TrEMBL record, chains A, B:
It comes from Violaceomyces palustris. This is Uncharacterized protein.
Length: 619, 619
């Protein structure tokens, strides 16, 4: 009987994100299986939103993504030419929906390219996907669910040999299992949860390839409303292009009462013929087609996300929606990025209340999925809608579309995703701030991802993104925003008091023999200047208790040395966070980058109490 | 008999840069040999200057360098404490010597780490170093030197087997050979060239390791002048540290008339004991030593760099100097970065005058080496000098040292390196500008590396470093700085005329069947706005003659869309280059990034004539 910590069913974006994150955190007993005999190499989900790029960066994977993907920075809106003869460009505008993001634009890269980044990262730690493998049976021993170290899940796996005939079965015991097995999830059906919501009769075709075209804006995201239907033109890596094309649903039996559109009635030629009609007067041909498919828009979310907080579902197994807002892979990877560190804390025995902790996964991500569906319904109908005209006075006007496009930007970018901090304390991980606390860090929201800004490393003057000082490694961060401890005795005194309380928490929650920044990592950002050797003023506790690596824990909010003077960087972190330089603040950030709490530098006890609520004490 | 295009003797920084560049340009018949049985894994040259980072970026190698190296951004100057008791910090200041550089700071990474980047890059194209191999004999057939395609060099190579006994010999014929075989170069001796200059009796020890220390500025470049001698503290990757320590030369017989200091008289303990004395009152111990050595400062340059422009030397084979200005690996890699594209043009049969073309290598790089020696003499004596005090009124004052440190910055950073554009036309690759031409691009210098600035890609709104639009691939760039071709009919007309002449040059010098940007690549930077679809206004010639990849050749000088508003980027390229928006300019850039000529947008004939001087015509 093989024993693992986590069994992951399905190697798509959700499964890969989870497997990679767990192995990155040092959880070595992970088994990830997939029913396909190799990984996807073309097409499928491909839009990477700004927050997802930041998440990749946290795991050290963004550089390759940024090098291989196409940047999508501009949008061009096309509508019927009032003079007839087809479409024309109404407006070109930034496709920038998240000005606060570190990378404020979308990226496009085929799903195989995205997955290859995970595959190589996992391989460097010895983790590989077991392909051609499915779950045949699963059992959950309810008597064991209270013990996080128990192997409560039993699964029978079946692996098909390369010739397709031979089958091998294996019994596996897992502490936790996660179904990342897509819209038709076996794990979801095993749990008995339903998909709630509707199937529409709106049908779209999607096609990837290298085109020959005179369409002027083929390097912009171009939503096209024409008299012959709608399409979205999406630029892709390596000068390829994706087209989303609305098809005539009547051909597949749409519009009939109670009927369902039959996808099998449509062929590649239907997509190509529609594209030709919609894009007139421009021409497009596809000498090379990489991938194509037909889909009917459905907007549904699973009734629950877990069974006893031991078996979970994530990604398409939880929610389906239209792909046109570029949300598919992003929401799936967001699910397991949220779940991974909670499993990590549980498996490492760091938490006192694993069921409560793991319960926040559904609390946070199911609410997000419902918001996403609501957003998608509204946005999809605008994309699919007929253009406004004399014959269609109820149609979609250019102004209405641009308004929606902009309004939904913050949400669809992922930057605006905010988990609710219930005043009732329902979510143990998020503490709603008082009015006074919120005023200490005006631009920071509990439940949202923490902003970033360029700060200067005190020890060597190196400019760094604040996000890069907090790589995703499973630890919480306490950011102390301090005044000028060199010039202001009061500021120094406040930091000394806070550091004494906080280092008490660090010591209490760190298992013996582990690095002092492995569970709670204290970073200080000060208004002092690097020129003053101010590192020497700070209490040793803020520098890993005197460990020589501790110099990397202290930053200054000042402009970067030198650099091209025309592009001054640094010196705006306090301002960007909305923190007064003479007041300071403490901000706690979860391992997934979301803000837990905001409080005053004079109230370090609030931070101590926060961690005491769910982290185990070792002293 | 094996035939190769280029035989490279020696796999150090110079040899690796050359081998990698040639294979990157598509020269597949390269043989690189080294006498050692494996590559260096610790110590040795390790400082990477700002221009070298830019060069790595040109070959697509900077990301890994930036990820693995230590950033050195700050300097701390130490001098004797006037109150006695040892040294104290006099000043902390930016170690930023090249504010115009894309990365304005130094990097440190051990030589094995630098070389590994080349090794992996070369391996991806099937090129590996042949280790344990030396040249035993070499012959140059003078009757063949006029024919660039002839294998004029014959060499006998000897490879030693792994047991050290077996030897295998091989005869190799090469079109060109380059000795990158260090200060004791076999190739240089074979050519019969002398090293000219002096050996000093100043002796230094250098030591790499992971220290335990209370020295406060161990993450800054810290030159220390003490009553017990001088040292330089250099932070390194992975929290390690390098110390350069001046040793007592009398121990090795220095100071005797005509005597030479004997390095063998010194041991690791001498370095450690000196460090202890110099750094008082601070303490330092080295629980781990990675590497150490002793060297005597010599400042010499070879009398010539080639034999008949068929056999060359580069790197330490050409010049030796003290390592304290962090120039070693940089000047060596700079040599072969300069030579590589000239060999490439010759080997691809693109040049009409290969001897003149290859002759510019010595013309440019020997002059640079001489300047470097002059610089090094002055700087070394300041670093080695006794501190100013009552007993040493002739000593080095803090003010004098800081002044020299700053003055030499631009040169030592590599950004300030400027090859001379002789009015006599002695250097066919550089055209001295007239006063009027210089006024068109006030901040651009012929012979210096072209500046960079952020520009916006017209087709998709993506912000890019101008340097990144000109990756090092062997082609020349013609930068057309155009006015607003959408709003200004005159600006459009000027671009139309220029594009017609320039595209004539492109067609003439591009061999049949090759991409139209493979020899001369035209890029346009305009003051027009991306929102206007101005791409459509430009003549097709400026977009690769209508090839769909041509959209990547056109840029706008405007602020980037969105982005964190606190750090506006883009929109300052004309200003940074000193080009008037209503006037424009044409700038030609060589494949190594150095500026060839500056002229008016109304004088494209000057560009045509420039290329006509050394590039072959194919039509």
């Amino acid at each position: 009987m093989t024993q693992v910590d986590v069994l992951i069913v399905g190697a798509g974006p959700a499964g890969y994100m989870l497997a990679n994150a767990l192995s990155h955190f040092g959880i070595s007993k992970v088994l990830i299986i997939d029913k396909r005999d190799k990984r996807v190499s073309a097409g499928q989900a491909d839009g990477i939103q700004p927050r997802t790029i930041e998440i990749f960066q946290g795991y050290g994977l963004a550089q390759r993504l940024l090098a291989e993907a196409n940047y999508m920075c501009m949008a061009a809106m096309y509508n019927p030419d009032p003079n007839g003869g087809g479409i024309r460009c109404t407006e070109r505008l930034p496709d920038i929906t998240a000005p606060d993001a570190r990378w404020p634009h979308e990226l496009t890269l085929h799903q195989g390219g995205i997955e290859a980044i995970f595959v190589d990262s996992m391989r460097s730690r010895g983790l590989e996907v077991r392909f051609s493998t499915t779950v045949a049976e699963m059992e959950l021993d309810q008597s064991l669910v209270g013990d996080p170290s128990a192997h409560a899940v039993k699964a029978k796996l079946v692996t098909t040999g390369t010739d397709g005939d031979q089958q091998e079965t294996q019994m596996v015991q897992a502490k936790f299992a996660v179904g990342c097995d897509g819209a038709h999830s076996w794990v979801r059906r095993w749990m008995g949860h339903e998909m709630e919501g509707e199937q529409t009769d709106i049908i779209w075709g999607v096609m990837d390839g290298k085109p020959q075209t005179d369409f002027p804006d083929w390097r912009c995201k171009s939503p096209v409303h024409s008299e012959h239907g709608s399409c979205v033109v999406l630029p892709r890596e390596n000068n390829s292009l994706r087209l989303y094309i609305q098809l005539d649903s009547s051909k597949g039996g749409g519009g009939e009462p109670g009927g369902r559109v039959d996808r099998s009635k449509y062929r590649l030629e239907d997509i190509q013929e529609s594209a030709k009609q919609i894009l007139r007067p421009y021409h497009i041909t596809y000498p090379e087609i990489d991938w194509w498919t037909i889909y009917v828009i459905g907007q549904r979310v699973a009734s629950a996300y877990s069974k006893s907080s031991r078996v979970f579902i994530a990604g398409d197994a939880c929610h389906t929606h239209s792909p046109k807002a570029g949300q598919g892979a992003n929401s799936s990877m967001g699910d397991t990025h949220n779940l991974a560190w909670k499993l990590f804390l549980t498996l490492k025995g760091l938490s006192t209340c694993h069921e409560t902790l793991l319960g926040t996964y559904e609390l946070e991500r199911r609410k997000f999925a419902q918001d996403l569906i609501d957003f998608d319904k509204e946005f999809s109908s605008l994309v699919s809608g007929k253009p406004l005209s004399e014959t269609h006075p109820e149609g979609v006007s250019h102004e209405k579309f641009v308004e929606a496009f902009t309004k939904f930007g913050s949400f669809s970018s992922g930057i605006g995703i905010r988990y609710e901090a219930y005043a009732s304390g329902e979510n143990v991980l998020l503490v709603p701030p008082t009015v006074e606390e919120q005023s200490l860090a005006k631009h920071v929201c509990v439940g949202q991802r923490v902003p970033t800004s360029i700060v200067i490393k005190a020890g060597d003057g190196r400019p760094m993104e604040l996000h890069d000082t907090m790589p995703t490694n499973g630890s919480f961060r306490v950011l102390i925003w301090a005044g000028d401890v060199v010039e202001e005795p009061k500021a120094l005194e406040a930091v000394k008091v806070a550091s004494s309380v906080l280092s008490g928490s660090v010591k209490a929650h760190t298992p013996k023999g582990q690095a002092m920044d492995s569970v709670i990592d204290i970073l200080t950002i000060s208004t002092s200047k690097t020129e003053t050797q101010f590192l020497q003023y700070l209490p040793l506790e803020l520098r890993l208790g005197g460990d020589m690596r501790g110099w990397e824990k202290v930053y200054c909010d000042q402009p970067a040395y030198g650099g091209r003077t025309r592009e001054q960087i640094g010196g705006k972190a306090f301002e960007h966070f909305g923190i007064a330089k003479d007041q300071g603040a403490i901000i706690v950030v979860r391992p997934d980058g979301h803000v837990s709490l905001i409080t005053s530098i004079a109230s370090p006890e609030k931070v101590r109490d926060y961690f005491g609520r769910f982290l185990k004490r070792f002293t």
